[in-house]
Amino acid sequence: EIQKRAPKVTAITGMCGSGKTTYARSIYDEICNENNSHFDCHAWIEIQQDVDYTKVFRDMIMQLFPVPSSQTGYVGEEEVLARRIQDKLKDNRFLIVFDGLWTMRAWVRIKRSLPRISMSGSLIIVTTEILHVAEGCTETAGDVYYLSLLQERKSFEFLKDVVLKSENGKISQE
After folding, report:
1. Using CA atoms, how far apart are residues 31 and 27, in angstroms rounded to an integer?
2. How far apart are CA 97 and CA 48, in angstroms?
3. Does 124 score more than 60 pLDDT?
4. By C-alpha distance, which of 19, 13, 15 is closest to 163?
5. What is the pLDDT of residues 28-64, one digit of tens each?
6. Rounded to whole angstroms, how far apart are CA atoms 56 and 53?
7. CB atoms within 10 A of CB 33
8. Pairing mode, strands 118-119 and 41-46
9. In terms of DSSP H, where are the helices of the chain?
10. Which of 37-46, 109-118, 144-153 has the lowest mean pLDDT?
11. Which of 19, 13, 21, 11 is nearest to 151 (CA)?
């Protein structure tokens, strides 16, 4: 018997520059690049402060359910698109990252497109700078991960090792 349950929502919060997006992206990329990923579909959705919900839903459809360009799976008003996503996701195990959520109002509107019950193991990751938004998206406080800013030395090492991909970089910390 196939188990179904509410998708798990995890939030990553912290100040601008704390690495929320980088952390979420590394998780997303690692999971999505696995040959035997247990997710049927996945999407990375960037949320602008002034949210265009129709664009968000179209982006979700294009990433979650790619169709040949001859098919028109992306047209419709916000409510129609939200229902289409919800209907398709309810029978799939999915991973969706919503990067840069600013308000609970935005979360409530986006959440309309997500099924209340789906295949067990579905996961939604939200990144936000705003703690009460992170808490409002998740079921429990244990599902909110707070990233603090890196100390100067660790920040420098991160820059050297990750961004510049330098093993023995000749960079001065000054």
Report:
1. 6
2. 14
3. yes
4. 19
5. 998 888 766 789 999 999 999 999 999 999 999 999 9
6. 5
7. 8
8. unpaired
9. 20-32, 53-64, 78-89, 104-111, 131-137, 152-158
10. 144-153
11. 19
